[in-house]
Amino acid sequence: KLQLTLAIIKPHAVKNPVALSYIRNVIKNNFVVLKTKRMILDAEAAGSFYEEHVEKFFYNRLVTFMASGSIDLHIMGHTHAVEVWRKLLGPTKVYKAQFQEPYCLRGMFGLSDTRNVAHGSDSLASAEREIKFFFPEFSLYNWYTND
Ligand code: CMP
């Protein structure tokens, strides 16, 4: 059964042609891509997307950064989409990524814990919430059934 996840390529990676084409190849070679969209989030939308982090010290920094330029969104399918995309991303913290898994996307292109290349849903439930957030017109149901 196809599982879906949402990838968000963050503004610094969208602006870096080498990073962007590398990331796109990784995505193309590992997933079926169902939907892709480029957009600019305003601070309000970025704030509500990351509302679970509202109490964290990095919240304002994260929201400002995510609203600072274009992001690329991809709805991606794989039998283990959530886990596979997070594995390809590597650890959230850039020092961990660089030292422990230098060939993961965050190890290669991460600049800081905030500018860590891309986002991946952390569970099926968040994938569903996040896909709805960015693609309200997208019907999960149509992809899960054949009739
Ligand atoms: P993301 O997968 O988009 O989900 C939450 C984001 O918060 C995370 O990636 C990072 O960009 C950011 N983040 C998490 N931990 C830290 C931290 N310690 N310092 C700064 N930013 C962080």
Automatic annotation (TrEMBL):
Keywords: ATP-binding, Kinase, Magnesium, Metal-binding, Nucleotide-binding, Transferase. ATP binds at residues 10, 58, 86, 92, 106, 116. SUPFAM superfamilies: Nucleoside diphosphate kinase, NDK (SSF54919). The active site is at 119 (pros-phosphohistidine intermediate). Its EC number is 2.7.4.6. It comes from the Eukaryota. Its cofactor is Mg(2+). Pfam families: NDK. One of its GO terms (biological process) is GTP biosynthetic process. Residues 2-142 form the Nucleoside diphosphate kinase-like domain. It is an enzyme of class 2 (transferase). GO terms for molecular function: ATP binding; metal ion binding; nucleoside diphosphate kinase activity. It catalyses: a 2'-deoxyribonucleoside 5'-diphosphate + ATP = a 2'-deoxyribonucleoside 5'-triphosphate + ADP. PANTHER family: NUCLEOSIDE DIPHOSPHATE KINASE 6. Belongs to the NDK family. This is Nucleoside diphosphate kinase. It comes from Pararge aegeria aegeria.
